[in-house]
Recover the amino acids of this structure.
């Protein structure tokens, strides 16, 4: 059955094409498996709570009749502004409009959130669709100053402040000379836009909508994770062709359900460490039905996701077995008024058998962050660039840094192939079991280890993280991160000129390795040679092996077919490589008519060499989970296609491009 919705319809519609419903909510209460809800262009200021689930064979489809013509917003217009002082106006809003959740009394908070930067609310004020900046004292609204930690310092002059007066919320806002009663001024009043309030609402498709401006809360892995859009611990959702923007925290959540006994336990109970409560949450979820049959297998595709405060896409546990493809994710956390360890274009824990492909991720403080349990994960054919704050940006006294991709405390296998990494900091690894194949890496490449003991032995990152039964959610064991167990085949490394602000910061740091860490002059250096490692390992007693090599030393790294330009350096144990010190490779990303091109002379200087043909057979299996680098269905991968899908030869060309071409990279 089809239900029709139109914002311009009169009251009392029956959902027919002739008498459509006025709200999407009316249709959402009735739609069942196999039904389609068709929404006409217009602005829908409502929280849509899908009541019923579809099935795999018959999903419930919510479709914008005109692509991105229907707008679901968590905001309401405010037209009762009165002059206060200078460019500052004030408005009084009855708290009744907020219901049980008032975004202007609710502070952003949760585990791994840094509230010392500035305590801010989940509410926002928007001038003509652009979020303004909250201040915690009235003086900074009356006399604003540019904040250069933001990526838009000029925008930080548009400030607001809130306080309570009885049953009313009072907002003061500096509109810099604009008359708010003549402009479009909105405040977000709803917590979510399209999100079931119960779990298990499976097989929903949301297609072609604009979804924006919700007062979402911080979404760490140890708490209920919400977004403006999300399946809320369900299976089989498709979110496609949507524009998602201006969530206070996260745009789309594929995340964790509410565990009342384990909700931000670290920062509210102060009894257990955050990583311990995260392990507790994982085990509890498994006991309560976290399986491949019940959770995950979502698709997020062809969406434009931007201007969210914490993440474009967030998830822990609930995003397993999903596909995230062909999305444009950009300008995330650019206001820099939220800070913590859960920020990125995409931030996902437990990306088990998740595929990220053909996405364009840029101008985020971090592009893609795979944290804990990246197992069977594949990152392929993506374009990353400008995922770093502007030069000189600081958070407190520290220089703000970012990178295209960060893989943290996972056991793998994690496969990163045929990507273009163009940010100044390309890759950061604090993990093991990674294979990097046929990538173009044009920024620093750094690894984070655990340090050394008094005897000079390296020791692991002592965060015991789970690994899983291959292609399942069931926990197979827990282990600290030994580091290494990585593979680097047929990549091209191009070193960028060092940024002076990073050089200066590195020289003044108390850590003498800081310059190496942030400039990445010798990527993934210091790992043992596999042949030497295993030769020594086989001669040791069982006690020696478990203590010295498996607990204190990194696992080996395997290499072959890599090429280094512009001063990029191979690791000490590099095999079958070329270090070109003669030619200078130039790389420039150019936008033209909405398409992106890489202007480069790289193909002219790539050497003729006998590169290995890479497949699952060559990569083998990740050490801890004993799982091969393979497809989610267990079939082998043959890297016989390049970034564009063109076929490769027996000895393929290093990097993501098999041949020179003029095709756009996005």
């Amino acid at each position: 059955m089809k239900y029709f919705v139109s914002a311009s319809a009169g009251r009392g519609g029956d959902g027919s094409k002739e008498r459509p419903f006025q709200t999407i909510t009316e249709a959402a209460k009735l739609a069942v498996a196999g039904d389609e809800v068709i929404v006409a262009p217009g602005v829908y200021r409502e929280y849509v709570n899908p009541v019923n689930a579809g099935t795999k064979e018959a999903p419930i489809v919510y479709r914008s009749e005109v692509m991105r013509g229907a707008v679901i917003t968590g905001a309401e217009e405010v037209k009762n502004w009165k002059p206060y002082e200078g460019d500052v106006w004030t408005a009084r809003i009855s708290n009744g409009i907020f219901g049980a959740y008032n975004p202007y009394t609710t502070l952003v908070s949760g585990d791994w959130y840094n509230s010392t930067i500035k305590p801010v609310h989940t509410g926002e004020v928007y001038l003509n669709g652009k979020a303004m900046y909250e201040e915690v004292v009235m003086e900074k609204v009356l006399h604003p100053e540019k904040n250069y930690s933001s990526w838009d310092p000029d925008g930080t002059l548009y400030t607001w402040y809130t306080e309570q007066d009885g049953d009313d919320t009072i907002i003061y806002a500096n509109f810099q000379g604009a008359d708010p009663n003549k402009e479009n001024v909105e405040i977000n009043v709803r917590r979510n836009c399209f999100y079931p309030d119960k779990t298990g609402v499976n097989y929903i498709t949301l297609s072609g909508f604009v979804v924006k401006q919700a007062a979402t809360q911080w979404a760490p892995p140890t708490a209920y994770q919400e977004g403006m859009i999300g399946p809320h611990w369900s299976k089989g959702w498709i979110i496609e062709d949507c524009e998602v923007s201006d969530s206070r925290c996260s745009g789309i959540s594929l995340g964790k359900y509410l565990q009342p006994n384990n909700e931000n336990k670290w920062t509210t109970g102060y009894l257990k460490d955050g990583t311990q409560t995260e392990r507790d949450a994982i085990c509890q979820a498994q006991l309560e039905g976290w399986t491949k049959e019940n959770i995950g297998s979502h698709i997020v595709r062809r969406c434009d996701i931007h201007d969210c405060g914490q993440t474009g896409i967030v998830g822990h546990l609930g995003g397993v077995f999903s596909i995230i493809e062909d999305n444009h994710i950009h300008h995330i956390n650019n206001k820099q008024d939220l800070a913590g360890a859960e920020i990125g274009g995409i931030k996902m824990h437990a990306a088990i058998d998740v595929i990220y492909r053909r996405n364009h991720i840029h101008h985020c403080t971090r592009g893609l962050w795979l944290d804990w349990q990246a197992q069977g994960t594949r990152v392929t054919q993506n374009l990353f660039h400008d995922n770093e704050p502007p030069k000189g940006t600081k958070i407190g006294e520290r220089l703000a840094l970012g990178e295209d991709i960060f893989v943290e405390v996972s056991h793998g296998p994690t496969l990163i192939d045929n990507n273009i990494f163009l940010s100044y900091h390309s890759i950061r690894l604090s993990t093991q079991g990674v294979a990097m194949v046929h990538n173009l890496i044009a920024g620093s490449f750094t690894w984070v280890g655990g340090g050394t003991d008094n005897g000079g032995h390296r020791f692991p990152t002592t965060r015991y993280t789970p690994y899983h039964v291959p292609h399942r959610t069931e926990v197979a064991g827990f282990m600290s991160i030994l580091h290494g167990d990585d593979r680097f085949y047929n990549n091209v490394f191009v070193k960028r000129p060092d940024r002076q602000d990073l050089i200066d910061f590195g020289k003044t740091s108390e850590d003498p390795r800081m310059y190496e860490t942030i400039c990445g002059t010798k990527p993934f250096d210091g790992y043992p040679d596999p042949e030497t490692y295993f030769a020594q390992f086989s001669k040791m007693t069982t006690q020696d092996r478990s203590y010295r090599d498996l607990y204190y030393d990194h696992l080996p790294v395997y290499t072959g077919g890599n090429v280094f330009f512009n001063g990029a350096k191979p690791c000490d144990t590099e095999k079958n490589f070329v270090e070109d010190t003669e030619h200078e490779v130039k790389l420039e990303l150019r936008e033209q008519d909405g398409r992106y091109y890489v202007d480069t002379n790289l193909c002219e200087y790539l050497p003729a060499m006998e590169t290995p043909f890479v497949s699952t057979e060559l990569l083998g299996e990740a050490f801890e989970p004993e799982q091969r680098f393979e497809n989610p269905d267990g079939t082998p991968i043959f890297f016989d296609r390049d970034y564009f899908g063109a076929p490769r030869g027996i000895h393929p060309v290093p990097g993501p491009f098999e041949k020179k071409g003029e095709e756009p990279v996005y």
About this structure: Residues 274-287 form the longest helix (14 residues).
